[in-house]
Design a protein that fits this description.
By secondary structure, this protein is mainly alpha-helical. It has a single domain, classed as de novo design (two linked rop proteins) (Up-down Bundle). The two termini are about 30 Å apart.
């Protein structure tokens, strides 16, 4: 996937999370988990943008690892919302699917970049 498309997908994902969080019921649990998922989900796109501006391949690799961590953390919070039945399955299913895809694409990018770094070593 090219850089522009991935930037668009991470932004759309962040916007979907914003809408989800705004629709959550008002309770202590929903507020806490909502803040957590909002923070981690919106940082995926921000950190990917930072990775695109990396100064070197190792710098990019480190930034992509942060993208992976934030995307995986987001899935954790979404799973909690699902299993605690705080948000409806119909709202969570497409977001979980996109989150899984973002993690998979990030992991693939990390593997490709690691191989590139290894092959450039003398």
């Amino acid at each position: 996937m090219d850089e522009i498309t991935f930037k668009e997908r991470t932004k759309k994902f962040g916007l979907a999370i914003i809408q989800l969080v705004e629709s959550l019921p008002h309770s202590k649990t929903a507020d806490v988990i909502g803040k957590q998922v909002l923070r981690s989900a919106t940082s995926i796109g921000a950190n990917y943008r930072a990775a695109c501006r990396a100064k070197s391949s190792p710098d990019m690799l480190n930034k992509l690892k942060i993208v992976e961590e934030e995307a995986d953390e987001t899935l954790y919070w979404l799973e909690l919302l699902q299993e605690a039945k705080i948000a409806p399955e119909t709202a969570l299913s497409p977001i979980l699917k996109e989150g899984d895809e973002l993690v998979a694409m990030t992991v693939a990018s990390i593997k490709t970049l690691r191989a590139k770094i290894q092959s450039s070593k003398p």
